Amino acid sequence: MAPLAKQTKVRKWYQGKRKHPYKDAFQRMNFLYQAAHLTLKQDPENEELVRFYIHTMRMIAQRLVLRIEPEIKRTICKKCSLLLVPGITAITRIRGKREHHRVVTCKSCGQVKRFNTGANHTLWSDIPNARISMFTEDKAQS
Ligand SMILES: [Zn+2]
Q1: What is the pLDDT of residues 41-80, one digit of tens each?
Q2: Within its chain, how far is the Cα of 24 from the centroid?
Q3: Centroid of ligand 1 to alpha carbon of 48 (angstroms)
Q4: CB 100 within 8 A of CB 117
Q5: Number of other residues whose CB lies within 10 A of the CB of residue 32
Q6: Paired residues of 90 in beta bridges
Q7: How far does the centroid of ligand 1 lie from the alpha carbon of residue 82, in Å?
Q8: Among 83, 84, 118, 81, which residue's Cα sits nearest to residue 104?
Q9: b/e 61-77 (16+ beta carbons within 10 angstroms → b)
Q10: pLDDT exceeding 90 applies to what percent of the chain?
Q11: Contact in structure between 32 and 57 (CB atoms under 8 Å)
Q12: What is the Å distance from ligand 1's center to 96 Cα?
């Protein structure tokens, strides 16, 4: 009886402490992503600084095992960590020979990303049931 009660108590305390786990890390990643966008907007030549911001953001995610949103992940070159903005740092083309897809090429290193855009294609992470909420607050609402 006693150990179980103690365990529950500890768990409750832990959950109370971590209502928003890794909040500061997410805030920092958010800041770095926005800083990268602004830097690229002000000076498209300054690719090194943009790379530094994005690389730092990816390192935080990697160290703490946090998932970056697919929407954001698609705007990052996985080879050279450059922010991919169509027309500035990336070339975007629609191809439909085998299956309708969007090709994004990094202008800096030539890395190619392909995204299926067929009518029947749904991204796995866009299926509501596939997602598990990270925060206890969101769980209570749904
Ligand atoms: Zn690249």
Answers
A1: 999 999 999 999 999 999 999 999 988 988 899 999 999 9
A2: 16
A3: 12
A4: yes
A5: 19
A6: 86, 106
A7: 6
A8: 84
A9: beeeeeebeeeeeebbb
A10: 55
A11: yes
A12: 24
